[in-house]
Specification:
This protein has 16 helices and 17 strands. It is α/β, with parallel strands linked by helices. The longest helix is centred in the N-terminal third of the chain and has 24 residues.
Length: 474
C-alpha cells in the first residue's frame, strides 16, 4: 500500500509539472483585439497633449534594451533611413515601389496611419496581417513586461520593434524606415542604414524640436552615421549649414539634388495624364529624362528627386537596378491622403498637409492640377503646430474656410482657430463642432464646379476617408 501511495504521488507531481509547463507556454493574447488593446494602452506620444522631448521621455537606451532582448532584429536587415519635416512618407513609398519593381523584397515602415495601424508596416506593398501582428505581440509580450518593471516601452517603440521583427522574419532584402518625431532621439535611430535621406525642412513641432530651422535641422541630422552617404534636397541656408556641419562631423558624404545632383522639373498637361509634373535627373551612374511624377505638385517632384537619388546610392552599393523597371515601379505609386479625391458629388479632396510649408505646397498644387470655380477648405490642426503660419497660408487658397476639430487629443479648438484667423487674415470664416457639421455647411455652399478640401491633420483626413468609405452620403 505504501509503494502504491508513492506511485500515485509521482503521477500527481508529473501532472502538476505538465500543467505548469502549459501555463508557462500559454500565449499572452488569445485574440487579435486583446493584443491590439494592449498595444494602444501603451504611452502614445502621437496622442499626448503635453510631453517633453528629451532623453527621459525619448530614451534610446530603453529602445536598445528592448531590441536586444528581442534578438536585435534591426541588425539582421539592410535599411534606408529617412527624416525631414514634410514628404517623408511620399519619398519612402516611391523608393520602396521602385526597389520592389526591380525584384527586391522591400519592407516599409511609416507613420502615422490614416485608417489602420497595419498601414505602418508593409512588405512589397502589402500590409502586415492581423495574424502576423498577433504573433509578434505574443512573442514580444514577456520581454515588454519584463522591461516595464523598470521603464515601460511606448506605443511607438513597440511598433518599431514589431516592424524590425517582421522584416527580419521575412528576410527582406532592404527596409525603408521613416522616423517618427525628429530623428536624434527617435526610436528608429538604432539602425545603421545604407543611405540617409533628409526631406524638406520647415517649422513644425516647435515645442519638441525648437522654434528655429537650425534647431530642427540639428534634430533631423541626429540620424547621420559615420561614413554613411546622405542625400537631401535644396534647403533654406540656415538649415543647410547645420546639415553640412553635422555631415562633416560624421565624415559622411552629403549630396544635394539640384546642386550636386543634376535635377530639374517642369509642369505640363497631356490628354493621357492630364496635369502632371515631369523631372529630369542624372548622376554619373543614372539618367532619367522627362520622367512623370506619379503624385501631384512641385513638392512631390522634389520628393521624387530624393527617392531617385537615394536609389542611385543603393545602386552603387550592392542593389543593381534597371531603369525601365524603376520607372514601372514609380508609376504604381498611389498614396492615400495626398490630394486624394474621396467623393465626386460634391467633389471632396483630402490632403495630409500639416504645417505651413506643406499647406503652401498643396494650395499651389491644387491650383495647378484641379480645375474649380471656388474652393471651400475644412481645416483642423493640432496645438503643437505652427498654427499661425498655417492660417496665413489658408487665406491664399481658400474662398471659404470652415474650422473644425479632429479626433486627436491634441486638436485645437475651432473657435480659437476662428479667432486667430480673423485676427491674422481679417477674413470671414465659420466654425463647426464636428466634421459632419462642417461637411453640411460646406455642401450648402458649393456647386458642381466647386471643390471641398479637407486638410490640416492626419487625424482629420483619416476621419473623412473613413466616413466616406462607410457612408458615401454627406
Amino acid at each position: 500500500m505504501v509503494t502504491t501511495g508513492k506511485k500515485i504521488s509521482k503521477k500527481k507531481t508529473a501532472r502538476s509539472s505538465s500543467k505548469t509547463a502549459k501555463v508557462k507556454s500559454k500565449k499572452a493574447f488569445s485574440t487579435y483585439d486583446k493584443a491590439l488593446k494592449y498595444l494602444f494602452d501603451r504611452t502614445d506620444y502621437e496622442r499626448e497633449t503635453k510631453f517633453r522631448y528629451n532623453v527621459s521621455t525619448f530614451d534610446l537606451s530603453r529602445m536598445k534594451k528592448l531590441l536586444s532582448e528581442l534578438g536585435n532584429p534591426h541588425k539582421k536587415i539592410a535599411t534606408v533611413h529617412i527624416a525631414g519635416t514634410k514628404g517623408k512618407g511620399s519619398t519612402a513609398t516611391m523608393l520602396a515601389n521602385m526597389l520592389e519593381a526591380n525584384g527586391y523584397s522591400v519592407g516599409l515602415y511609416t507613420s502615422p496611419h490614416l485608417l489602420s495601424i497595419h498601414e505602418r508596416i508593409m512588405i512589397n506593398s502589402e500590409m502586415i496581417s492581423k495574424t502576423e501582428m498577433l504573433n509578434l505581440l505574443n512573442r514580444s509580450h514577456s520581454t515588454i513586461q519584463k522591461l516595464a518593471k523598470k521603464d515601460s516601452a511606448t506605443f511607438f517603440e513597440i511598433m518599431t520593434a514589431l516592424a524590425f521583427m517582421h522584416f527580419a522574419d521575412s528576410k527582406v532584402d532592404i527596409a525603408i524606415i521613416e522616423t517618427g518625431l525628429g530623428g536624434r532621439l527617435d526610436s528608429t535611430n538604432l539602425i545603421t542604414p545604407k543611405v540617409v535621406g533628409i526631406t524638406s525642412l520647415s517649422i513644425d513641432h516647435q515645442a519638441q524640436l525648437g522654434n528655429t530651422l537650425e534647431s530642427i535641422a540639428k534634430e533631423k541630422a541626429g540620424i547621420f552615421k559615420p561614413n554613411i552617404p546622405i542625400v537631401t534636397v535644396k534647403q533654406k541656408p540656415e538649415a543647410l549649414r547645420v546639415l553640412q556641419s553635422e555631415a562633416l562631423a560624421m565624415n559622411a558624404p552629403l549630396s544635394i539634388t539640384g546642386r550636386d545632383i543634376d535635377f530639374s522639373y517642369r509642369f505640363e498637361t497631356s490628354r493621357k495624364h492630364g496635369p502632371h509634373t515631369r523631372i529630369c535627373l542624372s548622376t554619373p551612374t543614372s539618367k532619367f529624362e522627362h520622367l512623370r511624377v506619379p503624385l501631384h505638385g512641385k513638392h512631390q517632384a522634389i520628393n521624387c528627386s530624393l527617392a531617385l537619388s537615394m536609389l542611385d546610392v543603393l545602386k552603387n552599393n550592392g542593389y543593381p537596378v534597371d531603369n525601365e523597371k524603376t520607372i514601372s515601379g514609380l508609376n504604381t505609386v498611389n498614396l492615400p491622403g495626398r490630394m486624394e479625391l474621396i467623393n465626386d458629388d460634391p467633389r471632396i479632396m483630402i490632403d495630409a498637409a500639416h504645417n505651413a510649408d506643406s499647406l503652401k505646397s498643396i494650395i499651389h498644387a491644387i491650383g495647378q492640377n484641379v480645375p474649380y470655380d471656388s474652393m471651400v477648405v475644412i481645416f483642423g490642426c493640432n496645438k503643437d503646430k505652427d498654427v499661425d503660419g498655417m492660417l496665413r497660408m489658408l487665406q491664399y487658397g481658400a474662398d471659404k474656410v470652415i474650422f473644425t476639430r479632429s479626433n486627436s487629443p491634441r486638436a485645437i479648438s475651432p473657435d480659437l482657430l476662428v479667432e486667430k484667423y480673423t485676427e491674422i487674415c481679417g477674413k470671414m470664416c465659420q466654425s463647426s463642432n464636428s466634421l459632419g457639421e462642417a461637411l453640411n455647411i460646406a455642401n450648402s455652399a458649393v456647386g458642381k464646379d466647386d471643390l471641398i478640401c479637407i486638410t490640416g491633420s492626419f487625424y482629420l483626413i483619416g476621419q473623412a476617408k473613413r466616413r466616406f468609405q462607410q457612408n458615401p452620403n454627406l
